[in-house]
UniProtKB/TrEMBL annotation:
<keyword id="KW-0472">Membrane</keyword>
<keyword id="KW-0812">Transmembrane</keyword>
<protein>
    <submittedName>
        <fullName>Uncharacterized protein</fullName>
    </submittedName>
</protein>
<feature type="compositionally biased region" description="Basic and acidic residues">
    <location>
        <begin position="115"/>
        <end position="133"/>
    </location>
</feature>
<feature type="transmembrane region" description="Helical">
    <location>
        <begin position="20"/>
        <end position="43"/>
    </location>
</feature>
<keyword id="KW-0175">Coiled coil</keyword>
<feature type="compositionally biased region" description="Pro residues">
    <location>
        <begin position="84"/>
        <end position="112"/>
    </location>
</feature>
<feature type="region of interest" description="Disordered">
    <location>
        <begin position="77"/>
        <end position="133"/>
    </location>
</feature>
<keyword id="KW-1133">Transmembrane helix</keyword>
<feature type="coiled-coil region">
    <location>
        <begin position="47"/>
        <end position="74"/>
    </location>
</feature>
Length: 133
């Protein structure tokens, strides 16, 4: 049975036992990744840091909630002092464009439009398409 498995795993051009060695190494590597604790990858440390930041945010929110009545009083004072700016005149500024400007077509160097220049072929022959004799 083991010999039959080894024959199926043979890599052409290599000794017969290399396929089995690659299979065993792959299985061991996969098993190691499954059994490895997540703290090795650094996940545990990152989660602890995020939890500490979350605790700090909770404490800051609690402090802001206690100061909320004080903030609402300050906010009403600012609204009382606010003066609305004068409206802008429509003639002073044109409305913004809804589309970008279209650039002009490129100017290609070459013969003027209307004249057609075809390549001249110099074939051996008399000009009628028949070879010279």
């Amino acid at each position: 049975m083991l010999q039959d498995l080894a024959n199926r795993l043979v890599v052409p051009g290599l000794p017969e036992w290399t396929g089995l060695v690659v299979l065993v190494a792959g299985l061991l590597l996969g098993l190691a990744f499954l059994l490895m604790p997540f703290s090795v990858f650094g996940v545990k440390g990152r989660l602890d840091a995020i939890e500490a930041q979350l605790d700090e945010l909770h404490a800051e929110l609690r402090g802001l909630a206690l100061q909320l009545p004080d903030l609402s009083r300050r906010h009403t004072l600012v609204e009382d002092d606010w003066a609305t700016p004068p409206p802008r005149s429509a003639a002073a500024e044109p409305p913004p464009r809804s589309t970008p400007p279209v650039p002009p077509p490129p100017a290609w160097p070459g013969p003027p439009r209307g004249s057609r220049a075809e390549p001249r072929l110099d074939w051996p022959g008399d000009g009628r398409g028949e070879p010279r004799r």
